[in-house]
Amino acid sequence: MRYHPMSRACGPRHRVLAALVGLVMLSACSDQGSNPPPAGTDPALRASYDGYLAAIDAARTTVQGSPFIRDDADRAQGESFLSGITTYALEAALNLATEQPLMQLLPDPSQRLGFNNPDNLYYVTRVSDHDAYTITGKRGTSTGFLIQAFSGGLPGNGKDAGATTASIGDSDLHLAADGSFAITLSADRPAQGDWLPLLPGTDNLLVRFTFLDWEHEAPGSIAIVRIGGAGAGQLEITPALAAAMLDDAARSTQLQAQFYVDQATSLTALGPNFLLGPRQAQGQQGTNVQQWNLVGNYDLSDGQALLIKIKDVTQAKYGGLMSATPWFDTFEFIHHQVSLNRAQVRVDGDGNIRYVVSARDPGVPNWIDTTGQAHGVLFGRWQEVDGELGSEYAPALTVLDLSDVRGALPSDTPTVTPEQRTSQLARRQQLLETRFRDADPAQPEILRRLHAIEGLLGKSLPVQLRDDELE
Questions:
Q1: In this structure, are residues 142 and 110 in contact, taking their beta carbons and an 8 Å threshold?
Q2: Is-above-0.70 flag for pTM?
Q3: 71-90 pLDDT, tens per residue?
Q4: Whether 276 and 393 share a structural domain
């Protein structure tokens, strides 16, 4: 779905208000249990609807019981996280019919989940290992492109979900003269053409188009059809299918809530202001198989900053660092500089990148904004690295007063004035909104399926964005 202006957050107070709006929306939908669907509604569908609302309530209990919640700001962030996973789970469930799959853009910028990278366009779909599919599209000019096949359910649906079974990227791809591609997803290798193995247990795909140079790299496109199937026409939403979709969304909502709370609890328990890594990703939980990770957290008082010094990984095709909520939701990234990639940072003369993580703008180039959140997580990525990343790439961290930041940086570090920052952020917004605009051709069919279920129920379902809210 396209980015919607109502979800634009300008600071902590706006985020709290937005989260409270989400709380009212989700609570109102949960309250519909006392005002059930009309008497003529299919009994199995009614039961699935009740179970779906109960799952949202159970997920709220899990989220709001997180041990790292300290205050109302954290509780509001928890509601924002709950709203995001509720929408994510429902939209993924609307793509449950593997005989007519859709390659959908998920999550949208307002549905940030699991270190959603502002440098990526993500596409997801559900598949069956009993079928075969054709994946087509245009490569575009993004720095990276990768399709991963997973087993065990959606990444985040439990500790064993999202295990990589196969992948295909630029080094395996054969493009036509116009930049188009066609890939067969099947158990057996086709006689010709590019092939992504469909191994037993594979049930979903994740596609990444990764952008480094936001000014000049152009998006590609991607679509999927089942070989011998009905194509991308409208899927008939029967009461039985609607019930199965709600059951799937209910299960995912609870599993996602528990998974991210558990992950964040483990990370928080290791102590404040640290980063682990770099470590090579193993392709679990949807992580990029071509990636080295850096993960940790920050915990800062008002007026403090975290200085992170990392040796520049020049042998990586892509690199970046970002900040996120304790639940691993990337902070609002359309209007805030919560991420910087390798093309956006200043590298100092000694070959190091020095990031400054803080709530207030320190007036330096490599600022990572925490959007006013006192504590959260940090995540770094390096992709398609030539060789290994040893201990010399481990980061050095220093907590200092914001007023001391300038003295801790090289003397030739430029000053970024408030006017320059405003201009940078305005350009960031423009480039991101341009990238996401019209990036989801599956949106009309996903919305049609949603409305079909609501028509069968005689009730609206809790989602974060609706078609009447789109730009």
A1: no
A2: yes
A3: 999 999 999 999 999 999 99
A4: yes
